[in-house]
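User: I'm preparing a small set of examples for a lab meeting where we compare how different chains pack in three dimensions. I only have the primary sequence for this one, and I'd like the structure in token form so I can line it up with the others. Please keep the answer compact; I'll paste it straight into my notes.
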Amino acid sequence: MKGMLLALWRYRFFVFSSIKTEFRIKFIRSSFGGLWMILHPLSQVLIFAFVLSAVLSARLPGIDNQYAYAIYLMAGTLGWSLFAEIVNRCLTLFVDNGNILKKLVFPKIALPLIVTGSAFVNNMLLFVAILLIFGVLGHWPGAALIWLPVLMLIIIALALGLGLILGALNVFLRDIGQIVPVIMQFGYWFTPIVYMADIIPVQYQKWLGLNPLIPVIRGYQNVLLYNKEPDDWAGLGITALIASLLLALALFLLRKAGPEMVDLL
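Assistant: Understood. Below is the structure token output for the 265-residue chain.
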């Protein structure tokens, strides 16, 4: 672990320059540039908000705003988009960069950090856009925003641990790359983002407890919608523990299976 971290520190400029280059290449010859990073998730939010707000907006107690459902939806989408982008990109990370892994000598952990850095910048741009929309809708989050970095750190750790494990397995079994996107769609609807958890029948609500992402998304909603700190610290602690275990397992897999992965690629 210590050797991996030291190697990563030596290649820190490679990581930062790669993130910068990725953004430059992604939006070269694009008229809207970085706006495309936030237009896609925001368009999804607006569609759901306009279609479903008339049905669900009345079920948001404690919020005196006619656009309460749209605010609720954007809060959850902010957290999910960060999680989903990291997992989906890590899923094909090693397969997509097979030639680089064969030709260049650098710590493999640099690749997921580049992905994480890029996803973080995307998410921060989305966050700024959401804050502007909140202002237009007459809703400004307050001091509770101080808890948002904690929630982001937990969600990044969870996504990175899960994504790296799936990405390593995808090298050996390519069916993983086909199955995971389908599971992610189920995961989205298994997380109270589009709907409120209390509308689920009681006999099914216990199944939501199996989703470690729910305490984090609920924290996002508390911070951005209700302007209060997360209320499920026990759940956040369990999610953080799961994220730590997944990260440890991912680093173990990368260290032990790294040479075989390069050979297969």
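A couple of notes for your slides: The chain has one domain: 2-264. The mean pLDDT is 81.

User: Perfect, thanks.
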